[in-house]
Specification:
Structural class: alpha+beta
Strand order of the largest sheet: 10-11-12-13-14-15-16-17-18-19-20-21
Oligomer: single chain
Radius of gyration: 29 Å
Shape: globular
Distance between the termini: 23 Å
Strand content: 25-35%
Length: 624
């Protein structure tokens, strides 16, 4: 809504400018440019996608999503595709040499206009910068790159997408990564960062960097697995893609975390190559990476998929292939390699076990070097010692099996949008509910394709009908939980944040709240146990002075399987500014009927000021 208002105001201002100068364009152009052919081409899908035209804002008017004057030749090019076509032709007709000429700056537009206006004889000219750039990234294969979700970054909670262009570089890591990202201000606090990200306050730019930089950032530093999807573009389509990427060099788009983000922008760039794909058409309110991958599959543009495991996935794969005794030794070796390698319990191991212990210790030390190189200057020295020790072990085979490719990819999980129909009973009261959630995943949702212990929900609403009353029972604006199992080599912090509105069963009163917490989790076979310290700020009628600060603990267990999930949790909060305390016990079980259908049962006991009620619910859930 906020974004729509911003764009509606912007469109009004641009439209006023359009009325003032549009007449001048038609007066100054030649006869051939006033033809019906020109107007038809200005309304063609190819020309409009080259200009990134799209229905915008509350008015649904069509204009360009580009927010940079340097992208347009006409003063009204953002709102009038015809005036921009006329102005572009006039600019291309100018017999000017060099990189600053229109023919060098907009080669994709030059191709389009030359095909439809051969009589203009718009020949190519020498473009030193463009020719050198094109030669350096010369490509014949295009890939969509999908780094998995990263909950510690608000802009990457749902994953990230970029493109990779392979060519004569010879090695994949030397290929060019095409990335669209927001240029944020490092001095902005979290609230400012969020507001700007939601309202287009940051500029977004398309950039090209060596792929190895992105692999280092996502695979190694952030420990995110990467999926690489080979696209079935022909060589002419790849050439057209390269030309358009050049046109977007240093061109600003306003960046929106919800919809006009990395995933959406890359789809619009591909649409400019072939508008018939209509890859971006389905994304009007929000865009997340998994849905963009699905859109490419739907268009039959994906031919092959490659898995690139992260550094932490490598370490975890090695860890589970070792016995507990060697895990302990490997951790000791990473701390004191020379001393531990002389101990009898190391020397008595087989050659393969010694190799396993040293290789895991080395990989772990390299992983720590990325994370803590500023706080532990001896890490590089220990890594070299471990490498030297490994070279002296007389075992030349493979110490470990390769990292297993996950059975399911992210886009193979349930769809993002969720609707639910519920029949429930609250003590002696029977009710019905309708629930809807914009995205993305909670602990009871089918876990296929999703990271265990991760929950990200936005705009999750439940409307309850009972005794002829209709009311909002719950609205989660944001609900994030990240619970990762700790072990000898990985120490993730479990955390949660939730804000929104909730009506409590205990007294039928609602409150607005912000709840946050942090703690740890441990794995025991199929069970993930966690504990967190939590705090809550709340505002509502039940509280003295209508506000409350509560502090306490939350304990829970989680079982997640392909078709069956189970959650049991309980929290107790002590009030800091009044005497009454609260506790909340939840139990939930869910069974997946299909990939996008589910049945779930939930029981909850809420208590406030020694008044408690039970709530039981049976729901049919549909993902779409």
């Amino acid at each position: 809504m906020i974004k729509g208002l911003f764009k509606a105001i912007n469109l009004l201002l641009l439209s006023v400018g359009s009325m003032c100068v549009l007449a001048d364009n038609s007066i100054s152009t030649g006869t051939e440019l006033k033809s019906e052919k020109t107007r038809l081409l200005a309304n063609s899908s190819k020309w409009k996608t080259l200009l990134h035209y799209r229905k915008q804002g509350l008015s649904k008017r069509i204009y360009s999503e580009v927010d940079d004057d340097d992208f347009f030749f006409s003063a009204t090019g953002k709102t009038s595709s015809h005036s921009e076509l006329v102005a572009t032709i006039e600019a291309l007709k100018v017999d000017k040499e060099g990189d600053d000429s229109a023919r060098c700056r907009f080669p994709a537009r030059l191709n389009f206009i030359s095909r439809h206006f051969p009589e203009l004889k718009l020949t190519t000219i020498d473009c030193p910068k463009f020719d050198k750039w094109k030669d350096s990234i010369q490509g014949d294969q295009l890939f969509l790159i999908f780094p998995a979700s990263y909950l510690n970054s608000p802009s990457s909670m749902f994953g990230h997408t970029m493109l990779r262009l392979d060519g004569k570089q010879g090695h994949t890591l030397l290929s060019s990564a095409i990335n669209f990202s927001a240029y944020t201000d490092p001095n902005d606090d979290e609230i400012t960062f969020t507001i700007k990200g939601l309202t287009g306050g940051y500029p977004g730019y398309v950039s090209l960097v060596p792929y190895y930089e992105k692999v280092n950032e996502y695979n190694h530093i952030e420990s995110r697995d990467i999926w690489e999807y080979k696209l079935t573009l022909s060589q002419p389509e790849i050439d057209e893609f390269i030309l358009h990427i050049w046109e977007l060099n240093e061109i600003r788009f306003d960046y929106y975390f919800i919809d006009e983000n990395c995933s959406y922008r890359l789809l619009t760039i591909l649409d400019a190559v072939n508008p018939e794909w209509q890859l971006s058409e389905a994304f009007t309110t929000h865009t997340i990476p998994t849905d963009t991958v699905r859109s490419l599959y739907k268009a039959k543009l994906i031919s092959d998929v490659t898995y690139r495991p992260s550094k932490s996935s490598h370490i975890e794969s090695q860890r589970i292939q070792m016995t507990p005794r060697i895990r302990v030794l490997s951790k000791k070796l990473s701390i004191a390699p020379m001393m531990e390698s002389k101990q009898p319990y190391f020397l008595d191991l087989s050659a393969r076990e010694q190799a396993q212990a040293l290789e895991l210790a080395y990989d772990y030390s390299r992983y720590l070097n990325l994370k803590k190189k500023m706080t532990d200057p001896d890490l590089p020295k220990r890594s070299l010692q471990l490498l030297s020790l490994r070279s002296k072990v007389s075992f030349s085979g493979e110490s470990f099996n390769e990292v297993k490719t996950p059975e399911y990819r992210d886009e193979q999980g349930h769809d993002s949008y969720r609707s639910a129909v519920t029949l429930g009973r609250q003590d002696n009261l029977t009710y019905a509910e309708y629930g809807t959630r914009v995205n993305y995943h909670d602990w009871l949702d089918a876990s296929k394709g999703f990271r265990r212990g991760a929950q990200i929900e936005m705009l999750n609403a439940r409307i309850r009908v009972s005794q002829n009353n209709i009311r909002l029972n719950r609205l989660d604006l944001l609900n994030i939980r990240s619970v990762g199992a700790r072990n000898r080599f990985n120490h993730p912090i479990s955390w949660q944040v939730n804000t929104g509105y909730e009506r409590w069963a205990s007294d039928n009163l609602g409150h607005y709240h912000l709840k946050a917490g942090g703690g740890a989790a441990y794995e025991f076979a199929p069970i993930l146990l966690y504990g967190m310290g939590v705090g809550q700020l709340a505002y509502g009628q039940r509280y003295a002075h209508h506000n409350r600060l509560g502090l306490g603990v939350e304990l829970g267990l989680l079982i997640q399987r392909e078709t069956f999930n189970f959650v049991l949790s309980g929290d107790q909060l002590k009030s800091v500014n009044q005497s009454a305390d609260s506790y909340n016990i939840k139990l939930g079980a869910a069974y997946a009927l299909t990939g996008n259908q589910q049945l779930r049962f939930q029981w909850e006991r809420q208590s406030w000021n020694d008044r408690g009620k039970n709530d039981m619910r049976l729901s049919y859930v549909l993902y779409h």
